[in-house]
Amino acid sequence: MFEKLSGSSGNVIGYKASGKVTGADYDKLEPEVDELLKREGNIRMLFDMEFDSMTVKAMESDLAFGHKYHNNIDKLAIVGDKRWEEWMTSMANKLFAHEAKHFHTADMDAAWAWLREN
Q1: What DSSP line would sit under 5-65, residue for residue?
Q2: In what order do the strands lie in the sheet with 12-21?
Q3: Is the domain defined by 2-116 classed in CATH 3.40.50.300?
Q4: What's the pLDDT band for 86 if we cut at 50, 70, 90?
Q5: Under a CB-based contact definition with an 8 Å cutoff, are residues 80 and 49 in contact?
Q6: Among 12, 36, 16, which Cα is nearest to 25's?
Q7: What is the phi/psi pair of residue 7, to 5°?
Q8: Beta 99-103 vs 2-4: how paired, if at all?
Q9: Could you give the angle at the alpha carbon of 42 between the alpha carbons of 60 and 12, nearest 5°?
Q10: Tens of pLDDT along 8-55?
Q11: Total-model pTM
Q12: Rounded mean pLDDT, 60-83
């Protein structure tokens, strides 16, 4: 599931992914992103990756999300302490955002600060 983080403001939005991520989670996420894009123009996103598992539908939805919003996400911060998240960040530069950067879980404040830099 995705939970909107309290640090979200303006064109910067963050979500914590936890438990089991499903395709339905993306169905709820997209309208929020669409509304923010209408209000703010391009956005900057943070994903705190604390989820346990992801359904096949969620994986498909994730790729579709990246395809749909790639041109609208200026920066993407991926926060987590797993090695695969670092690898995923290198893919995110090509598929999900203009620029993506990985931050260790302990560096959450630095991730928010990076997103807010001009």
Answers
A1: -TT-BTTEEEEEEEEEE-HHHHHHHHHHHHHHHHHHSSEEEEEEEEEEEE-HHHHHHHHHH
A2: 2-4, 12-21, 43-54, 73-79, 99-103
A3: no
A4: confident
A5: yes
A6: 16
A7: -75, -5
A8: unpaired
A9: 85
A10: 999 999 999 999 999 999 999 999 999 999 999 999 999 999 888 999
A11: 0.92
A12: 93
Q: Encoding tokens for residue 13?
A: 């939005």
Closest CA to 111 of 33, 15, 35: 15
Rounded distance between C-alpha atoms, residue 37 and residue 73, angstroms: 9
Residue boundaries of the structural domains of the chain:
2-116
29: Cα within 13 Å, side-chain hemisphere? 26
- Distance CA(45)–CA(74), nearest Å, equals 8
